[in-house]
Amino acid sequence: MSNSKIYFVAGATRGIGLALVAAIASKEPTALIYAGGRNPSGSPQLVELTGKYPGRAELVKYIAGDKAGNEALAKEIGHKHGHIDTLIANAGIAKGMGKIHETSVQNYEEHFSVNVIGPVVLFQAFYDLLKASSLPRFVAITSGAGSIEMIEDTPMDTSSYGMSKAALNWIVRKIHYENDWLVAYPQCPGPVDTDMAHESVATLGTSMMQEVFKKYTLRKPDHVANVLVDIIMASTREADGGQFHNIDGGRYPW
């Protein structure tokens, strides 16, 4: 069994997840980090990064919503360490932008499956390992698009994505109230310069794209991850649990 802090980052092959692994490794010199993705060895950047931290960062296969796979991974980590300290549910999708009447049911189902059921399955699989930690944290990476109150301020049609993030926010807030031993909250990283962001925006029309980039400045993943890790490391149940965090230290309306 290990006395080191154990982290698991879901969706670590690119973007924010990849940057989170790098930030944790840099800021927590004794931490052990499991970097999960559908095909982790297929990410040259992640392979290179974990190679810089032998014995401290490990690639693992993680598929959002795969109950058997998540449970097997938790069992493996539990056998090695007996606990997990920080579980970061970062894996997610944002496919296509459209109004409700023009977005397919299949698109809604896919977003809900990955962005909502995925973190639920992850939390369930690692529940006992979190409970074995002296300071357990469950943080879900969400989005301002999941704020119901802020719908009118969102310039793009994020119906399926926004719906899934609103549901995720509810789930994590409920987890907070159900588990008085846990620090749990949804964390919005703000607009980030990732492949997923560009892929999503590319589906919009030219005028809408211009409106989006006029409203938002995309921050670099490394900068965002460094700020997020500082927030996570300092978080407490009393001050932060069950709150909808933004990256600037404030709170979003639900």
From TrEMBL:
Gene Ontology terms: cellular component: cytoplasm
Keyword Transmembrane: no
Keyword annotations of the record: NADP, Oxidoreductase
Any Pfam family the entry gives: adh_short
Matching InterPro entries: Fungal_SecMetab_SDRs (IPR051468), NAD(P)-bd_dom_sf (IPR036291), Sc_DH/Rdtase_CS (IPR020904), SDR_fam (IPR002347)
Claim: Oxidoreductase is one of the keywords in the record: yes
Family to which this protein belongs: Belongs to the short-chain dehydrogenases/reductases (SDR) family.
Matches recorded under PANTHER family: NADB-LER2, SHORT-CHAIN DEHYDROGENASE/REDUCTASE
Name listed for the protein in its UniProt record: NAD(P)-binding protein
